[in-house]
Amino acid sequence: MLPELQNNFLYMSLDSFDIEDSPDGGAPEAASEQHEKQRDKSSKSIAGIARSRKDEGKGKKAADILFTFLVELLKFPDYDVFINPIFDALKLNIPSVYLVGILTLISRKASNTIRSQYGGKDMPLISAEPPSESTKIAFQNKTLRQDIRTRINEWIEDMFLATTKDPSSILTTKFLTLLDRKNEREAFTLCIATAISFFFFSKNIVISESESHAFATFILLELEKKIRSLSLEAI
């Protein structure tokens, strides 16, 4: 929603009024030139407002997807351990578009929604989840099953897709600013780490907190590099 225009001219003092600047005063040539400059300035402002409204609309799609799946996950207590860090990140004003991709590791439905919304009709959907291990095993990156490794890579692809496909200039700049703050960066890292832990435990694979955090730190660094390399539309 556009902010209400303020009638700033009502608060101008008489001393600030210059007849040379008045559309009814001064030489006709000067008035015409002033009018053209004002028209050019107004046109640029209107174009900027249009770009801003379009930009803000990009974030709404991600927010709607995030809201839909959070409401769905809230029905199941097992997801509380994953959902709580997401809510903490939202309280720190981390944009939804950077959180929605995290959901896709624990929800194939969320993954396919991201892929259809952001990837288009040629983007392959996730047809099945990898089965769990028959017995509990410790996480070992080098011996990780190929189907689980593939699912992790698909998840990272989802996060990159949601945050870099037709990105919002305003939200991207905001997110990068937040990443420069320790609390916000750690909150986002925790969201990724919690998703990693949740996923592996659901597959009967035990991963330590330090391992999931190291994995999350690596993913965020890669995501940050990709985001910082984007060419954003000026607002």
List the helices and strands and how they pair.
Layout: H1 28-73, H2 80-91, H3 97-103, H4 108-119, E1 137-138, H5 146-164, H6 169-179, H7 182-202, E2 205-206, H8 209-228
Parallel strand pairs: 1-2
Structural commentary:
The chain has 235 residues and is mostly helical. The protein has one domain. It has eight helices and two strands. It has a two-stranded parallel sheet with strand order 1-2. α7 packs across α8. The radius of gyration is 25 Å and the shape is globular. It starts with 27 loop residues before the first helix and ends in a 7-residue tail after the last helix. The relative contact order is 0.12.
Pick out its properties:
two-stranded parallel sheet; single chain; 235 residues; 2% strand; mainly alpha; globular
Unreliable segments of 5+ consecutive residues: 1-26, 41-53
Number of helices: 8
Query: How many angstroms separate the termini?
Result: 16 Å
Overall mean pLDDT: 80
Largest sheet: 2 strands, parallel
- Give Rg in angstroms: 25 Å
Number of domains: 1
> SSE string, helix = H, strand = E?
HHHHEHHHEH
- How would you name the oligomeric state of the polypeptide chains in this document? single chain
Q: What form results from the Cα inertia axes? A: globular
Number of strands: 2
Helix content: 55-70%
Sheet with most strands: strand arrangement: 1-2
